[in-house]
Design goal:
The protein is an all-alpha fold. The protein has two domains: 1-43, no CATH class; 51-271, no CATH class. Helix 4 runs parallel beside helix 6 (167-193) and helix 7 (199-223) runs antiparallel to helix 8 (232-271). The protein is 76% helix and 0% strand. It has helices spanning 26-42, 45-71, 73-77, 85-122, 132-160, 167-193, 199-223, 232-271. The chain is extended and about 85 Å long.
């Protein structure tokens, strides 16, 4: 046994022949070395490639799922179960980032025009760009919380309808019904990048449509012919009321980051 203190090789016994240190921790030392080797191998290039391949496979699977739902949104979505929970979360994340992103590019286009005007009038560009964190990251986080709350309200309405369903199933189906509106918002994002002014109409259609159409569709898909508990219409109304309460409470969180960004930019323009 090898001494952990002086590395002397001992034939046996509980103490080192060379320094007298206890040898009872030797086994643990060898185990620790084995764990370290395992950890090192876990970070090997080959293993990293496996993670990359796994990510690629998930992306391909989600893209196929996305396109299938786009073709027949209601028919595909009403058959979605808890096995698509991760897909539902991915859709919710996409939805949360698309709105702030299109506003970011729209604002960036406006500022680019202003920079050009300043160059024409004052002989130099101001080089003002919108703050990405304030315009995209913070609002996206707020939108993700908001849309998850809408999913929770929808789940509560379904449970009031006396339907035996899990939260994962509801989120999966909620995300599936959200896909057509994510596609509309993606079109709005492309239009905002290309500086097409009609992007705002697509933004309203995607946002308002998702809030007013997705919850009742999800509730109806679970309720179907079940007449017990709260009716689909009343369940939808309950969801709407709770959603508007959430908007009222989270209004500052949803819109203050954008207002602060605009205020900072107006302050910069005031300096000129």
């Amino acid at each position: 046994m090898i001494c952990s203190n002086c590395s002397h090789t001992n034939e046996g016994g509980r103490f080192c022949e060379n320094c007298g240190s206890s040898l009872t921790g030797g086994g643990r030392t060898e185990s620790a070395a084995a764990v370290e080797n395992t950890a090192s191998s876990a970070l090997s290039p080959g293993q990293s490639n496996k993670y990359i391949e796994s990510t690629k496979n998930i992306s391909k699977m989600y893209f196929g799922y996305f396109m299938e739902v786009i073709k027949k949104p209601y028919a595909s979505s009403q058959a979605v179960g808890s096995e698509h929970f991760i897909n539902g979360l991915i859709t919710i994340l996409l939805y949360s980032f698309l709105i702030p992103l299109m506003l970011y590019f729209a604002l960036k286009g406006i500022l680019a025009d202003m920079n050009s005007l300043s160059a024409g009038f004052f002989g130099e560009e101001m080089q003002i760009n919108p703050p990405f964190t304030d315009v995209v990251i913070k609002p996206a986080f707020a939108y993700a919380i908001f849309i998850m709350l809408v999913a929770v309200f929808t789940f509560a309405s379904i449970k009031l309808g006396r339907i035996n369903v899990s939260f994962k199933e509801v989120v999966a189906r909620f995300g599936s019904f959200l896909i057509p509106f994510v596609a509309i918002l993606a079109i709005a994002l492309i239009m905002s990048i290309l500086k097409v002014k009609l992007f705002f109409l697509f933004l309203l259609l995607g946002f308002v449509g998702s809030i007013f159409m997705v919850p009742p569709l999800v509730i109806a898909s679970f309720k179907k012919s079940n007449v017990d508990g709260v009716d689909v219409i009343y369940g939808s109304l309950i969801t709407y009321v709770l959603t508007f309460i959430a908007i009222a409470i989270m209004g500052d969180m949803l819109f203050n980051a954008l207002k602060d960004a605009f205020s900072d930019l107006l302050g910069l323009f005031g300096g000129f």
